[in-house]
Design a protein that fits this description.
Elements (H helix, E strand, L loop, with lengths): L9 E3 L2 E9 L4 H12 L5 E5 L4 E7 L4 H10 L3 E4 L2 H5 L7 H25 L7 H16 L1 H12 L5 H22 L9 H34 L4 E7 L6 E7 L8 E4 L9 E5 L2 E4 L10 E3 L4 E2 L4 E2 L4 E5 L7 H13 L7 H29 L2 H14 L3 H20 L2 E3 L13 E5 H5 E12 L5 H12 L5 H12 L8 E6 L3 E6 L2 E6 L9 H4 L6 E7 L2 E12 L3 H10 L3 E5 L4 H11 L6 E2 L4 H13 L4 E5 L5 H6 L2 E5 L4 H6 L2 E3 L6 H35 L5 H20 L9
Parallel strand pairs: 16-23, 16-25, 23-24, 25-26, 26-27
Antiparallel strand pairs: 1-2, 2-4, 2-5, 3-4, 6-7, 6-8, 8-14, 9-12, 9-14, 10-11, 10-13, 15-27, 17-22, 18-19, 19-20, 20-21, 21-22
Helix pairs in contact: 4-5, 4-8, 5-7, 5-8, 6-7, 7-8, 7-11, 8-12, 10-11, 11-22, 11-23, 12-22, 12-23, 14-15, 22-23
Length: 734
C-alpha cells in the first residue's frame, strides 16, 4: 500500500499524482478538452472521468498543482484538490442539479403538450399563434437555459458540444417562428413553436436520465464509507487517579497506539492488534471468508470487520488512509477512473458537426442571396439547414434505448445502471465469479454429518447441538439450527466451558462432551478425518476420542451449475475467486464445473482487483460477478461489473449491473440484454447521423422548407423511439 507523503499528492520518485474535482462539465467533449489541455503540459498525464467529475493527474515535481488548476480554469471549468482525508470521508451527495433538470423537464413537457395541441389541433383562430408564442417562450428561455448557457461557455473557448447543437436547433426553430409571426408572413406559412418546445422537453428528459445515472454511480463510495465504524470507545488513564476510563471519540481522533474496545456486535474501528480478549471475527467485509475467524490476544484485526462474540481490547496499528478498509475505498475510486461512455461517440462527432453545419448554413445563405437576389429566400433556406440539422434524434438515441432496455431488464430482475456499462459487453470473453453469496448462498450450514461405527448420526448431531447451544459462535448456531430443523430434541447441559479458538465442553447426563477442532482429541478415526477436506469441520466426542464430525460450509445455489455450464458453452472462460480456504473453493468449483486451474483461493480485496487487472493485461475483456464489499474494487475494475442483489449495498452501487434474483441464471440474461441495448443505441446513433448527412444536402439545395424540415426531424425521433421499443422483446417471458 502506498503512503501519502504530500497532503495534496502521492509521490513516487519524481512523479506525483493528484486527484482534482472538476466542475462545469456537461458532456464528453468537456472532459476530453480538460484532458487534452492538461496533457499539453510537459510530463503531465491526465485521465478525466465525466461520471465522477474527477481527474487523476500524474505530474513531475517541476509542475505545481496550482499550474494544473489554472490550466483547467483556462479551459472554462473549475478545479479543486481532493485532499486525502476528504477522500476517506463519505462523499457529499447533493441532488440539486438533478432536481433542477427534473423541474425543467416537467415544465417543458407540460407546456410542449399545450403547444402541440394548439399547433396540430383542428382549429384556427387569430390568437392561436400568439398563444403558441406565449406558451413556448418560457420553454425556450427558461427550460432550455442549461443548453444555452453551456453553448455560450463553449463558444467563449471556441469549442462546440451537443449543447451547442441543441441550443442552435431550439433557437432557430423559435426565432424563425417569432420573425414569421411579427412580420405577418405566417398567414400562408407555418410556425415551428411546437418544434422548439418538443425538442427542449425530449432533450431535458434525456439529460435528466443521464444525470441520475451519474449520481447513482457516485454513491458507491458513500455506501462503502457507511459500512465503517462511526465512533470508537478508547481507554484513557486519568493522570491523577491513574484509573482507566472509557472515552467515546470520533473515528478521526483515533491515533496509532490507542487502546480501543470492541464489544460483541460492534465493528472494528481501525486496523489493530488484540491485547486482551478472545472472540470470533466476521471478516467477510475484507476477505470474503464465509465463516468467522477465531481470534485471541496477539492476533491482528482489520477495520470494518465485525466482532461476533467476546469483548476485545485492541491496540490501533494504523488509522485513516493507512487501513485496509481505506485501501478498499481507494481501489474503488481509482478503478472508476476512465470508465467508457457510449455517448462519447455523439459528443466527439458533434465537435466537428456543429462548426460544419454553421459553415454550410452561412454558405447557403450567401449562395442563395446571390443566386436568387432575395435575402428573405436566402434566410429561409439557411434556417431550414439549421432546423434539419437539429440533433433531436441524436439526443434521444442513447437515453431512449437505455430507458426501454433498463425497464425491460428491471422486469426480469436485471438492473442496468447507465449507458457506460454497455461498451464492452459485446466482446466479453472472461467471467470472474466470487464464491460466497454468488455461487453459494452465503449462509453457513451443516453440509456433512458423519458418525463413528456403532453410533447413529442423529446422536452425534444431538450431542453437538447440546454443547453448542451454550455458544453464540456462528458455527454453533448453524449446528443448533440443523438439529432444530430435523426435529431433534436438544438435551440440557451443565458446566459449559468455552475453549477460545478451539471449541467448547459441557456435561450431558454425566458425560463430559467436547465439540471443536481435531487437536482436542487424542484419537480421530480416519473415516471422520476425511471430512476436514470438505470445509470447516468440528468434531464431537468424549473420553478424548472423536465419535462424530460435522462440516459447516456454504451451500451451492441450485442454479449455479447450470448457469456456469451455459456460460462456458457460449465460449466464456469462467474463473472463481474466493477468500475461503483452497480446499473449500476447489470443492465448490468442481461441483459447478469450473476448472481447477481457474480457481484462486485465499484472496484479499486488492488481490481480486489485481487478478482482474492481470486478465485485462492479457487482452481479455472481463466481467466480474460478486456480492460483498470485498468484491467492490474488482467489480468496478472489470469491463463489466455485476452484483447479486442479495449482497451488500456497496457491491450493488459499485456494479454496472445488479442482478436482483439470487441466482447465476441472471448473468447470461444480463449479458444478452446489455449487448442488445448497445446494439440498438448504435443503430439509433447511426440513423441520427445518417439522417442529418442525407437531409442537409436536400436543405441546401432548397428542396425542403422549414415545415418539411420540422416534419422530418419529428419523424427521425419517432423512428429512434420505435427502434428502442424493440428492446421490450429481448428477453422472453417465463
Amino acid at each position: 500500500m502506498s503512503t501519502v507523503t504530500d497532503p495534496r499528492s502521492e509521490s513516487t520518485t519524481d512523479e506525483h499524482t493528484v486527484d482534482l474535482a472538476i466542475t462545469g462539465m456537461t458532456c464528453a467533449s468537456c472532459s476530453a478538452r480538460v484532458e487534452r489541455n492538461l496533457g499539453k503540459i510537459d510530463g503531465v498525464d491526465a485521465v478525466v472521468n465525466l461520471a465522477t467529475e474527477k481527474a487523476r493527474v500524474s505530474h513531475p515535481e517541476s509542475v505545481s498543482i496550482d499550474e494544473l488548476i489554472a490550466t483547467v480554469e483556462k479551459s472554462g471549468y473549475g478545479a479543486t484538490v481532493i485532499e486525502p482525508e476528504a477522500r476517506l470521508a463519505p462523499p457529499k451527495h447533493t441532488p440539486v442539479a438533478r432536481a433542477d433538470l427534473a423541474r425543467r423537464a416537467i415544465v417543458a413537457g407540460a407546456l410542449a403538450a399545450v403547444v402541440v395541441l394548439l399547433a396540430m389541433g383542428p382549429w384556427s383562430f387569430p390568437a392561436n399563434p400568439w398563444l403558441q408564442l406565449l406558451v413556448t417562450t418560457p420553454v425556450v428561455v427558461w427550460a432550455a437555459w442549461p443548453f444555452h448557457r453551456a453553448a455560450f461557455v463553449n463558444a467563449r473557448h471556441l469549442a462546440s458540444t451537443m449543447d451547442t447543437l441543441v441550443s442552435l436547433g431550439v433557437s432557430a426553430a423559435y426565432l424563425w417562428s417569432l420573425v414569421t409571426l411579427l412580420t405577418g408572413a405566417g398567414q400562408d406559412g407555418h410556425y415551428y413553436f411546437e418544434t422548439a418546445a418538443v425538442i427542449t422537453a425530449f432533450l431535458l428528459i434525456g439529460r435528466w436520465l443521464e444525470a441520475r445515472s451519474k449520481d447513482e454511480g457516485r454513491s458507491a463510495l458513500t455506501e462503502l464509507m457507511d459500512l465503517g465504524a462511526k465512533g470508537v470507545a478508547v481507554q484513557r488513564i486519568d493522570s491523577r487517579t491513574r484509573a482507566t476510563t472509557e472515552v467515546i471519540l470520533p473515528l478521526d481522533e483515533l491515533q496509532v497506539g490507542d487502546h480501543f474496545i470492541v464489544r460483541p456486535g460492534e465493528k472494528v474501528a481501525t486496523d489493530g492488534r488484540i491485547i486482551d480478549g478472545t472472540s470470533s471475527i466476521d471478516t467477510s467485509l475484507v476477505t470474503g471468508e464465509s465463516v468467522p475467524v477465531d481470534v485471541r490476544s496477539g492476533d491482528t484485526v482489520d477495520a470494518g470487520t465485525v466482532n461476533t462474540s467476546g469483548r476485545l481490547i485492541v491496540e490501533a496499528t494504523a488509522v485513516g488512509s493507512d487501513t485496509t478498509f481505506a485501501a478498499i475505498v481507494r481501489l474503488v475510486e481509482q478503478a472508476q477512473t476512465g470508465k467508457a461512455d457510449v455517448q462519447r461517440l455523439a459528443d466527439r462527432v458533434s465537435a466537428v458537426f456543429v462548426p460544419a453545419v454553421l459553415v454550410v448554413a452561412l454558405l447557403t445563405f450567401v449562395g442563395w442571396w446571390i443566386g436568387s437576389g432575395s435575402a428573405t429566400t436566402a434566410i429561409g433556406v439557411a434556417v431550414t439547414v439549421l432546423i434539419i440539422a437539429c440533433p433531436c434524434a441524436l439526443g434521444l438515441a442513447t437515453p431512449m434505448a437505455l430507458l426501454v432496455g433498463t425497464s425491460r431488464g428491471a422486469q426480469k430482475g436485471i438492473l442496468i445502471k447507465g449507458p457506460q456499462v454497455l461498451e464492452d459487453t459485446r466482446r466479453i470473453d472472461t467471467l470472474v465469479l466470487d464464491k460466497t453469496g454468488t455461487i453459494t448462498t452465503g449462509v453457513a450450514q451443516v453440509t456433512d454429518l458423519a458418525a463413528a461405527p456403532g453410533l447413529h448420526p442423529a446422536a452425534v448431531l444431538s450431542a453437538a447441538a447440546a454443547v453448542e447451544s451454550g455458544s453464540e459462535h456462528p458455527i454453533a448456531r448453524a449446528i443448533v439450527r440443523r438439529a432444530q430443523d430435523q426435529g431433534i430434541k436438544i438435551p440440557r447441559i451443565t458446566d459449559f466451558e468455552s475453549l477460545p479458538g478451539s471449541g467448547a465442553v459441557a456435561t450431558i447426563k454425566g458425560t463430559r462432551v467436547t465439540v471443536g477442532k481435531s487437536d482436542l482429541f487424542d484419537e480421530v478415526p480416519p473415516e471422520l478425518a476425511t471430512l476436514e477436506r470438505r470445509g470447516t469441520t468440528v468434531f464431537v466426542g468424549w473420553e478424548r476420542k472423536a465419535r462424530g464430525a460435522l462440516t459447516v460450509a456454504d451451500e451451492v445455489r441450485d442454479t449455479s451449475g447450470d448457469a456456469i455450464r451455459a456460460l462456458r458453452a457460449e465460449g466464456l472462460q469462467v474463473w472463481l475467486l474466493s477468500g475461503d480456504a483452497e480446499h473449500n473453493a476447489t470443492a465448490i468449483a468442481a461441483t459447478v464445473g469450473i476448472d481447477a486451474e481457474h480457481v484462486i483461493a485465499g484472496v484479499r480485496p486488492h488481490d481480486k482487483h489485481d487478478v482482474i487487472e492481470r486478465l485485462q493485461g492479457e487482452g481479455r475483456v472481463v466481467a466480474m460477478v460478486g456480492d460483498g464489499v470485498n468484491d467492490a474494487a474488482a467489480i468496478v475494475r472489470a469491463d463489466l461489473g455485476m452484483a447479486m442483489g442479495t449482497g451488500t449495498d456497496v457491491a450493488m452501487e459499485s456494479a454496472d449491473i445488479v442482478l436482483v434474483h439470487a441466482d447465476l441464471e441472471s448473468v447470461p440474461r444480463a449479458i444478452s440484454l446489455s449487448r442488445e441495448t448497445l446494439k440498438v443505441i448504435k443503430q439509433n446513433l447511426g440513423w441520427a447521423f445518417g439522417y442529418n448527412i442525407a437531409a442537409i444536402p436536400l436543405a441546401v439545395a432548397g428542396l425542403l422548407n422549414p415545415m418539411i424540415a420540422g416534419a422530418a426531424m419529428a419523424m427521425s425521433s419517432v423512428l429512434v423511439v420505435l427502434n428502442s421499443l424493440r428492446l421490450r422483446r429481448v428477453l422472453p417471458d417465463d
